[in-house]
Amino acid sequence: MDASTEFENGQAKFDAIIAADEKIEPRDWMPDGYRKTVIRQMAQHAHSEVIGMQPEANWILRAPTLLRKAILIAKVQDEAGHGLYLYSATETLGVSRDELVGLLHEGKQKYSSIFNYPALSWADMGAIGWLVDGAAIVNQIVLQGTSYGPYSRAMVKICKEESFHARQGYSIMMALAEGSDEQKAMCQDALNRWWWPALMMFGPHDSESAHTAESMAWKIKRKTNDELRQMFIDQTVPQAHYLGMTIPDPDLVFDEETGHWTIGEIDWDEFWATIKGDGRLNRERITHKVKAWDEGRWVRDAATAYAAKQKMKPDKSA
Ligand code: BYC
Q1: Does residue 318 have a pLDDT over 60?
Q2: pLDDT score, position 149
Q3: Average pLDDT of 7-30?
Q4: Burial 60-82, CB ≥16 within 10 A → b, else e
Q5: Closest Cα to atom 34, ligand 1: which residue?
Q6: Span from the CA of 111 to the centroid of ligand 1 (angstroms)
Q7: Is residue 78 lining ligand 1, measured as CB closer than 6 Å?
Q8: Confidence tier at 7 by pLDDT (50, 70, 90)
Q9: For 186, which DSSP code?
């Protein structure tokens, strides 16, 4: 078969799989643009999980009770696991984890804007679980239906764990909201600082989004950035009210006609500066990540040497 017939057959089969809402698997032919977009999104997602461990890990030693400490350790460990599933899923497209990590360290691949904000108080552990994991779940539940098979399957397990994360965050917020005046104030302060950055996690408005139209056509994304953001707002505003807290947006109104909450304007200058590397903690986050990578080299080397030695051993069961 000549190259152009092979391309046409591949394209036709790819189009049929997408139209039938089935999954593209690693062995399938796919357009270069599709492969590139899935790699970009999955790698960015994996990096976010790993960088996302930093703000919370910082609070493990300062958790107020043994139970809260144990829960937070389990959550941070889950985030590492999510990073691993997502790096493995990305590797099915022919890139290695080392390459991806290198691109992150050189600033050539992004991670979620949200992790460039500091976690200043224990209430931030509540706000991160409730709002950041809450936003992540809204995005990821929909991504279970993404067209790339390994990404979709990774999302199923990740979503189960994320819902535990969001609940633990809300449980911290509930405890503070029912506590002393000082604790209530901590809860409100954390909501004030994390609300807008959480809304930015969904990316720019659809009209400004470079990739949405193509990613929707390829069914990599199943809902647009604005659709997902609205779902999150509608689910979260009543939760804030239940806590007795105020959403830090004077323009927030409930639109009786549409049945949705309408928000004021997001600070897009802050968003673009943050994703271009000029947010509050971009440099610290990457410096810390590179340091941990360098210091862990001996562990990776030892694990690889051990695995290689095991392979060389004769198989006694044969
Ligand atoms: N942050 O065309 P657009 C978690 C970039 S972590 C940074 O709309 P797309 C957790 C975008 O990459 C959850 N960059 O892009 C872990 C693009 O840049 P380039 C992480 C952003 O991809 C620990 C440009 O802006 N979740 O759960 O169609 C503890 C234009 O945007 C952001 C995921 O990664 C941002 N917020 O849509 C707790 C979900 N937004 O490459 C929790 C998977 C946009 O053109 N990812 N950009 O230079 C997605 O669903 C999509 O990639 C996005 C963006 C909705 C984020």
Answers
A1: no
A2: 98
A3: 95
A4: eeebeeeebeebbeebbebbeeb
A5: 45
A6: 7
A7: no
A8: confident
A9: H
Q: How confident is the model at residue 6 (pLDDT cuts 50, 70, 90)?
A: confident
Could you report the per-residue pLDDT of 73-105, keeping only the tens digit for each?
Answer: 999 999 999 999 999 999 999 999 999 999 999
How far is the centre of ligand 1, averaged over its atoms, from the C-alpha of 41 (Å)? 7
Mean pLDDT of 282-308: 94
User: Which residue CA neighbors atom 21 of ligand 1 most closely?
Assistant: 203
Please tell me the distance from the alpha carbon of residue 307 to that of residue 296, in angstroms, as a whole number. Answer: 17
Q: What is the distance between the alpha carbons of residues 241 and 25, in angstroms, rounded to a whole number?
A: 44
Q: How far is the CA of 10 from the centre of ligand 1 (A)?
A: 29
Structure tokens at 316: 């006694």
Locate 218 and state its tokens: 């390829």
- State whether the beta carbon of 146 lies less than 6 angstroms from ligand 1: no
Dihedral of CA atoms 187, 276, 289, 39 in degrees, nearest 10, equals 110
* Mean local confidence (pLDDT), 16-30: 97
Task: Identify the CA nearest to 90 among candidates 135, 144, 40.
Answer: 40
Q: Can you tell me the distance from the alpha carbon of 79 to that of 48, in angstroms, rounded to the nearest whole number?
A: 9
Residue the block writes with tokens 């399938």: 28
In angstroms, rounded to a whole number, what is the distance separating the alpha carbons of residues 236 and 228? 12
Unique residue bearing structure tokens 């400490």: 69
Q: Please report, rounded to a whole number, the percentage of residues in the chain having pLDDT higher than 90.
A: 92
Which DSSP symbol is given to 251? T
Percent of the chain with pLDDT over 70: 98
User: pLDDT: is 2 or 183 the higher one?
Assistant: 183
Helix (H, G, I), strand (E, B), or coil: what is residue 221?
A: coil
Q: What residues form DSSP beta bridges with 24?
A: 148
- Give the helix/strand (H/E) hosting 261: strand 260-262
Ligand 1 atom showing the smallest separation from residue 45 Cα? 34
The SS3 call for residue 258 is coil
To the question of pTM greater than 0.90 for the whole model, the response is yes
Residues 114/51, Cβ–Cβ less than 8 Å? no
Phi, psi of 138 (to 5 degrees): -55, -45
- CB of 223 sitting under 6 A from ligand 1: no
